[in-house]
Amino acid sequence: MGLFDFFKKKETEPEAQVALDKGLEKTKEGFFSKITKAVAGKSTIDDDVLDNLEEVLVTSDVGVNTTLKIIDRIQQRVTKDKYLSTTELNHLLRDEIQLLLAENNSNDFRQFEYGQHKPYVIMVVGVNGVGKTTTIGKLAHKLKAENLKVVLGAADTFRAAAVEQIKLWGERVGVRVVAQAMGSDPASVAYDTLQSAVANGEDVVIIDTAGRLHNKIGLMNELGKIKSVMEKVIPSAPHEILLVLDGSTGQNAFEQCKQFTEATDVNALAITKLDGTAKGGVVIGISDQFKIPVKYIGVGESMNDLQLFDKKAFVDSLFK
Ligand SMILES: Nc1nc2c(ncn2[C@@H]2O[C@H](COP(=O)(O)OP(=O)(O)OP(=O)(O)O)[C@@H](O)[C@H]2O)c(=O)[nH]1
């Protein structure tokens, strides 16, 4: 199977669905217990119910804009159908969330032109602690399991621990890691990694970057330099700029998304740590607000806990 086929694959296999269900348990519990409260004592969906629902969505980290959009759509359905019973609210909500996710996440990753570039270069960005390195390790593991040749570039040279951590993942997963001494030029690491990947005929390059959010100009310069060095080796690279966000941070994830999308051309999102948080609504809001597809979600710490985001499986799991 080639890279292209791998990313066309839909992750609805039973095992993945079980992991997803488990990972989203807290979000689901939080969400539905709030909804139950929101409709308590009401038989039809009226303005009160919609006001309460608005609060439920906002406090579930769906984000204000997306919440208003969902409420507006439900209101239109209520106006059209008159006297909708509150027992239908879950159905309505499910439909609207599914539609929203469909608008923003096509599940068709052809836009990333997998298989058309060898090596396919992914530059991974995000602040420290969001699960960037872990996501890189898990992704490398996933790709390697499909017999793809993967190389990692330790371009987060700012902290010694980051270089060590990625080397450790390389050993664990069994993929090559290109690294230089701590404090060396990240762009130089990226250059070396791409050059050696071309020479070795590797399929995928994943470059880690430092997650310093000192200020926008600094971030732009730092990422811009790495990008332009990559272009020198492979003019079309990076093919993917993957922003990693910690789903358990709710509104902070929105803010980071804003900063990084302003600083560089992010075209894919990975949302981690959805297990153990009730803030999974962030997946719905972020993809809608920034119009960037969520490509991966992290639902646990183990190597197999990174999933290709499947909007149908996600909604199924949430409303099961
Ligand atoms: N529960 C859970 N933990 C995760 C997930 N993804 C990452 N983590 C954990 O989050 C912590 C931080 O992950 P790192 O990969 O070190 O984060 P980072 O963004 O690379 O941060 P630095 O290496 O400090 O730059 C680690 O303990 C990971 O095991 C996830 O999907 N679920």
UniProtKB/TrEMBL annotation:
Catalytic activity entry: GTP + H2O = GDP + phosphate + H(+)
BP GO terms, sorted: SRP-dependent cotranslational protein targeting to membrane
Residues covered by the SRP54-type proteins GTP-binding domain: 293-306
EC numbers, comma separated: 3.6.5.4
GO cellular component: cytoplasm; plasma membrane
Residues noted as binding GTP in the record, renumbered to the chain: 126-133, 208-212, 272-275
Entries under PROSITE patterns matching the protein: SRP54
Main location: membrane
Molecular-function GO terms, alphabetical: GTP binding; GTPase activity; signal recognition particle binding
DNA repair listed as a keyword: no
Transmembrane segments: none
Span of the signal peptide: none
UniProtKB keywords: Cell membrane, Cytoplasm, GTP-binding, Hydrolase, Membrane, Nucleotide-binding, Receptor
Membrane topology type: Peripheral membrane protein
UniProt-listed InterPro entries: AAA+_ATPase, P-loop_NTPase, Signal_recog_particl_SRP54_hlx, SR_rcpt_FtsY, SRP/SRP_N, SRP54_GTPase_dom, SRP54_N_sf
Database matches in SMART domains: AAA, SRP54, SRP54_N
Keyword hit for Nucleotide-binding: yes
Purpose: Involved in targeting and insertion of nascent membrane proteins into the cytoplasmic membrane. Acts as a receptor for the complex formed by the signal recognition particle (SRP) and the ribosome-nascent chain (RNC).
HAMAP family associated with the record: FtsY (MF_00920)
Family statement drawn from the similarity comment of this UniProt entry: Belongs to the GTP-binding SRP family. FtsY subfamily.
Subunit structure: Part of the signal recognition particle protein translocation system, which is composed of SRP and FtsY.
Protein name listed in UniProt: Signal recognition particle receptor FtsY
Organism: Pedobacter hiemivivus
